[in-house]
């Protein structure tokens, strides 16, 4: 999901480069830094690694060479780029095939209830959820034709979920409710069950078509599934509730955006914009909620706490202190959200586990560095909100393939990134007694630091970023890439080298190389691409982006085994196809070469959606990509009149549904090559 932006401003980068600009912050002006680096790049034949090495030799406090080294090859990118798209369909390059798969409502378990707008809340617990997002393919016995697709369902549009919504003037955030503000309990159940994660076995037939297999591993994890809390926050007073007086359990996961795959082959779902689901009528709200956007209010996003009948599993979305003690109400319920949730897709009976040591924030996703025997496990995660941070977890115990499991994530150190203007960076530990995180400064102990991750990161002086989204690790160089989707609220005074544009409408991608292993406390960074149109965008060589490469608001990101950098865009529904965003058309996916910085458009999606989530089978001959919220740009009036802007994927007069794309090549070749 993207957040609303302020449309209509001209991006300052349009004017940057020739004209000197004033910057009251005292930070180096980005134009200077860019120019310095670009001339280094030119001198050193375009290699970012060499450019950073040049910076390090003269300015940085450590002196490793960053060159990729011999044997590291650039990936082949063999398809012909496609133009931007504006139609209500998916377009892929010549020689490729695409098929829509497992749309919202597809039955996968239980009595396999057929898709229907009339389906009940209980039916939804056996069907694919809505708003597909992060996704992984877990091969069964190494197969590229038989595996488990595991995917997140970030949120819902209630108007497209309920037959009863037809004819109502509902926009993309609207929902049916009674005059007194209460809600139908089965609609609420359906909405909670349409969130979460799907685990579904899929198999490719001899005809090349992928099908759902009815299988004992098929499973829905939803907003109602019992979950365990693990790590330092588990069992503390922060998470004591009426449901779990010992603070070790909670129910459900929400707003699962991107994901991660652990070195021990389990799945992690990220809890991103969970705060909005809660009401809290307390006059005073402490930082455990206020720093995450919960303020005094009677309303939650979908008013779930107002479900008729007052069932406990719905009432808990009211975080007001109503009882005599925390064990008698749900004042602490929001403290059980904001984590990475571990799910073992191969054990359908397993209880999902919220791993609290990875921090509590609006987790976009998590990306693991390749695990090395005998070394700590390292994972990176971004906090997707304006001016929030990028984090790294380093395990205390070393990775040993023979016995590695999720408990490795329960002990270690959480760090937050500071990007210095000279191209160096450091990881600041969020640990008791370190970097001023002491009781005197308001951080009692580790659980307190983790529940208040954002406040702790503020305290240590981390760098405020332009909405960190997905990360990816280059398998050959170990360089870590992160998308920074946009931040129109950054002022000229707030510009720094890592977030170089004020009113950043289009976003950018940053990357860094750790100083040694991924557990290092220092790194060197640079900017891979400044997204934008042909005037404002800049590639790795500092050249304007061509028509085949323009994009805005990078979000999903994946680097395949051959090092192709797959970039997915999420221009907000509030600005897509209009104003300065019109030139980008519908949201799309592109491929970049990490060595040359060349970018080519690979796919464009239907109307009103975002493209998010990408993975291939191990042989790279089938790619899965998600299309989320087609038709979201339908206005309330148009919805009431039955005039939807998208009918994808079913066509005709059908309501639009999020779905997964299956992409193959006509010649059976490797996707993207
Ligand atoms: Fe759910 Fe940050 O996109
Ligand atoms: Ca997004
Ligand atoms: Ca996203």
From TrEMBL:
InterPro entries noted in UniProt: PhoX, TAT_signal
Signal peptide: none
PROSITE patterns, A to Z: TAT (PS51318)
Record-given protein name: PhoX family phosphatase
Pfam family, one: PhoX
Transmembrane segments annotated in the record for this chain: none
Organism of provenance: Billgrantia kenyensis
């Amino acid at each position: 999901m993207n957040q609303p932006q302020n449309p209509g401003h001209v991006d300052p980068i349009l004017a940057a480069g020739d004209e000197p600009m004033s910057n009251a912050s005292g930070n180096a002006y980005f134009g200077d830094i860019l120019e310095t680096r670009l001339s280094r790049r030119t001198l050193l034949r375009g290699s970012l690694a060499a450019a950073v090495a040049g910076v390090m030799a003269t300015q940085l406090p450590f002196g490793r060479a960053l060159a990729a080294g011999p044997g590291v090859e650039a990936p082949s990118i063999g398809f012909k780029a496609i133009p931007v798209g504006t139609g209500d369909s998916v377009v892929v390059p010549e020689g490729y095939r695409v098929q829509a798969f497992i749309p919202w409502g597809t039955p996968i378990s239980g009595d396999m209830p057929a898709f229907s707008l009339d389906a009940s809340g209980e039916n939804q617990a056996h069907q694919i959820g809505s708003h597909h997002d992060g996704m992984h393919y877990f091969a069964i016995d190494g197969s590229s034709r038989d595996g488990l697709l595991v995917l997140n369902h970030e949120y819902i549009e209630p108007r497209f979920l309920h037959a009863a919504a037809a004819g109502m003037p509902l926009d993309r955030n609207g929902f049916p409710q009674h005059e007194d503000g209460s809600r139908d309990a089965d609609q609420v159940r359906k909405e909670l069950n349409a969130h979460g994660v799907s685990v579904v076995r899929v198999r490719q037939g001899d005809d090349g078509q992928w099908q759902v297999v009815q299988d004992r591993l098929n499973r829905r994890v939803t907003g109602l599934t019992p979950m365990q809390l693990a790590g330092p926050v588990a069992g503390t007073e922060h998470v004591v509730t009426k449901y779990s007086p010992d603070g070790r359990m909670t129910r459900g996961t929400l707003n699962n955006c991107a994901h991660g795959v652990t070195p021990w082959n389990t799945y992690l779902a990220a809890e991103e914009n969970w705060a909005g689901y809660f009401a809290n009528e307390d006059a005073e709200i402490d930082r455990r909620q206020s720093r995450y956007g919960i303020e005094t209010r009677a309303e939650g996003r979908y008013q779930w706490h107002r479900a008729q009948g007052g069932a406990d599993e719905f009432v808990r979305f009211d975080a007001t202190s109503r009882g005599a003690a925390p064990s008698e109400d749900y004042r602490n319920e929001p403290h059980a959200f904001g984590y990475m949730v571990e799910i073992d897709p191969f054990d359908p009976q397993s209880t999902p586990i919220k791993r609290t040591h990875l921090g509590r924030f609006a987790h976009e996703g998590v990306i693991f560095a390749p695990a090395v025997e005998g070394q700590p496990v390292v994972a990176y995660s971004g906090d997707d909100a304006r001016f929030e941070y990028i984090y790294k977890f380093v395990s205390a115990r070393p990775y040993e393939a023979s016995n590695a499991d999720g408990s490795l994530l329960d002990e270690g150190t959480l760090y937050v990134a500071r990007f210095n203007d000279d191209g160096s960076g450091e990881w600041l530990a969020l640990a008791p007694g370190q970097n001023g995180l002491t009781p005197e400064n308001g951080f009692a102990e580790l659980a307190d630091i983790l529940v208040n991750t954002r406040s702790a990161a503020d305290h240590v002086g981390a760098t405020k970023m332009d909405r960190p989204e997905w990360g990816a690790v280059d398998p050959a160089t170990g360089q870590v890439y992160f998308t920074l989707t946009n931040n129109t609220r950054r002022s000229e005074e707030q510009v720094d080298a890592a977030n170089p544009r004020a009113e950043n409408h289009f976003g950018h991608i940053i990357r860094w190389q750790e100083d040694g292993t991924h557990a290092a406390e220092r790194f060197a960074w640079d900017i891979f691409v400044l997204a934008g149109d042909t005037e404002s965008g800049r590639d790795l060589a500092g050249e304007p982006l061509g028509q085949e490469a323009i994009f805005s608001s990078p979000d999903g990101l994946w680097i395949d085994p051959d090092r192709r950098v797959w970039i997915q865009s999420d221009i907000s529904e509030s600005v897509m196809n209009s104003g300065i965003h019109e030139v980008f058309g519908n949201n799309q996916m592109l491929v970049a070469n990490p060595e040359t910085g060349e970018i080519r458009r690979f796919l464009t999606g239907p109307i009103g959606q975002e493209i998010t989530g990408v993975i291939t089978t191990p042989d790279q001959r089938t790619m899965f990509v998600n299309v989320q919220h087609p038709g979201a740009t339908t206005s309330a009036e148009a919805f009431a009149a039955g005039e939807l802007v998208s009918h994808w994927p079913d066509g005709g007069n059908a309501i639009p549904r999020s779905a997964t794309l299956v992409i193959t090549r006509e010649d059976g070749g490797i996707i993207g090559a």
